[in-house]
Amino acid sequence: MYNDPMRHFDLVATPLGRLRIVVSDIALLHICFPRKSRSSGAKRSLWGERIEEKAMRKVDHPLIVRFRRELKEYFAGKRKKFTVPIKLEGTPFQKKTWRVLGQI
Predict the structure, then answer these.
(1) pTM of whole model > 0.85?
(2) Where do the domains of the chain lie?
């Protein structure tokens, strides 16, 4: 059976709006613009996942702190590449597409 890693999240203010970032103890897992479900009021990702069911809010998690700093540097024009490890979760086609996009 698949062992789902512990997930942590936080909201990060950016010039594009607030982003919800989700990390495990070893990698960035998910970035989205949060929105509320019209029916339940629960926050969901753009893909409809209920984030709170899968992650605990932890603003001081080392990867969240690191990603927040790197994102701030990026928007300030001081960073072009991110060093936070990313774990791609998706179909083989999605993973191939993301790898190609990462080379652009």
Answers:
(1) no
(2) 8-102
